Amino acid sequence: MQDVIIIGGSFAGLTAAMQLGRARRKVTVLDTGLNRNRYAENAHNIFGHDGAPPADLLGAARRQVAHYPTVELVGAGAVSISGEPDNFAVATTAGDTISGRRLILSYGIVDQFPDMAGFAECWGKTVIHCPFCHGYEVAGRPWALLYSSPMSLHGPMLYANWTDDITLILDGHEIIDEERHKLEKRRVRIYDGKLASISQQGGRIEGVTLDDGTSVELAALYAHPRNRPSADLHAQLGLDMQATPTGTMIAVGDMQATSRPGIYAAGDLAMAMHSVTFATNAGSLAAMGALQSMLV
Ligand SMILES: Cc1cc2nc3c(=O)[nH]c(=O)nc-3n(C[C@H](O)[C@H](O)[C@H](O)COP(=O)(O)OP(=O)(O)OC[C@H]3O[C@@H](n4cnc5c(N)ncnc54)[C@H](O)[C@@H]3O)c2cc1C
């Protein structure tokens, strides 16, 4: 019987594993190796590791976690979960069933790309979701934001930190006049048309064309596609969920506890704002929550 089974061994899951391994707890980490930022050449805004390739960060973390003899890293996915606290059973894609007293769910989310040539090729390079992660590299150049929800209206104000050449593409959505005037006062260009095509070379965006024929030259396109959890284990478990501006997340309380006893969740799967730092922080809290719950 393991103390904790961690499902998803990336930034959140490996942080939890490190913490539990150092407390000499028996841990299995199941992971399928598809961290969300694998499309980006470099990861930024990470304490002590600004600009490191994501694969290097995760490779180093795996090696360091594997050093702890009570932690087992397994390259397999979790397919189903049953049981109760002190006796959960997790069935894996390798055909095994692993028993554990507590669970940490850290299997992340999947971005659902629009069906448009060039979008996937540029994702994480010049089609970007977060200016703090990849904005500095294209500062001072023409940026556009593809509107996806009312949250998008905050984007142009924020982007003024990096460039004064900002276009908002409404992509067929409507915004109220007051918002339009506020943005125009800040010299944000607003186009109403729908995104029709992306022109790019090897992941470097050159521009976009809208369905009304408007063309915009760009160095970066900001986009927030809808996302969904990477697995359906939370649904199997009937966990409480919460809507986010771009999808859904597992609802968590103190120490990342979910709505079911003995089950914790961390990382992008359990928060609306996404970064490596937030994920590692939540992984650490979840480990502490799981550990504390086994002391009573
Ligand atoms: C293109 C892009 C670039 C980004 N760049 C940055 C950046 O520069 N700086 C920054 O701070 N943040 C960046 N982010 C955000 C960052 O990638 C995420 O916040 C972070 O990866 C979240 O970590 P996580 O551990 O929650 O999930 P993930 O890193 O997504 O890991 C989830 C893990 O769970 C595994 N998994 C899925 N299903 C199962 C299953 N059933 N069983 C077992 N394992 C499973 C997956 O294979 C994966 O390894 C970027 C995001 C994107 C999309």
TrEMBL record:
Q: Which domain of life is it from?
A: Bacteria
Species lineage: Bacteria, Pseudomonadati, Pseudomonadota, Alphaproteobacteria, Hyphomicrobiales
Start and end of every FAD/NAD(P)-binding domain?
3-282
Protein keywords? Flavoprotein, Oxidoreductase
Q: Which InterPro entries match?
A: FAD/NAD-bd_sf (IPR036188), FAD/NAD-binding_dom (IPR023753), Ferredoxin-NADP_redctase_2 (IPR050097)
Q: What is this protein called?
A: Thioredoxin reductase
Q: What's a Pfam family in this record? A: Pyr_redox_2
